[in-house]
Amino acid sequence: MGKVKEETPSKSVRDAAIRLTMMPRDTNAHGTVFGGIILSYIDVAGGVESVRHTKHDRFVTVAMKEVIFHEPVFMGDLVSFYAETVRVGNTSITIHVEVEAERFGGQGQTVKVTEAEVTYVAINQFREKVKIGK
Questions:
Q1: CA contacts within 13 A on the Cβ side of 48
Q2: pLDDT at 132 > cutoff 90
Q3: What are phi and psi of 65, to 5 degrees?
Q4: What is the pTM for the complete model shown?
Q5: CA 96 from chain center: how many Å?
Q6: What is the pLDDT of residues 56-89, one digit of tens each?
Q7: Where are the alpha helices (DSSP H) in the chain?
Q8: What's the burial of 99, exposed, middle or buried (CB within 10 Å: 0-12/13-18/19+)?
Q9: What is the homologous superfamily of the domain 18-122 according to CATH?
Q10: Exposed site from 14, 102, 114, 123, fewest CB < 10 Å?
């Protein structure tokens, strides 16, 4: 028998740090998701990437660069938060987070919602700043 060729995912396939469906509790009276909800998930996604990339288990957010919402997010949309490490310093890490929404009932239509650059600082169990990896 011949050897079965295993397919490997292409480099264009990205692994979302988090992915979730927006629910009624996330929306305002117009049916769009509050910007603050998206910001909080950007923060979580960046934190996930920080830990994944460094294996350090405690970070605090110190800065989030300008966030511009290009498209609204609606109740029922499946929202993906893709995070990538931009740079690692002695005590800080900067993560780029890109947010995409797959429209509910949109037959796979995906739109870029926003993106942000978030900086975190590594801390220890006493909430003191420490070098990453220590």
A1: 16
A2: yes
A3: -70, 170
A4: 0.86
A5: 8
A6: 999 999 999 999 999 999 999 999 999 999 999 9
A7: 35-54
A8: buried
A9: Hotdog Thioesterase (3.10.129.10)
A10: 14
Contacts 24+ apart (CB under 8 A), 103-107: 103/74, 103/77, 104/21, 104/74, 104/75, 104/76, 104/77, 104/78, 105/76
Token pair for residue 47? 């934190």
- Non-local (6+) Cβ contacts of 37 within 8 A are 22, 26
> Is residue 132 helix, strand or coil?
coil
Helix (H) or strand (E) holding 19: strand 18-21
- Token pair for residue 97? 């987070």
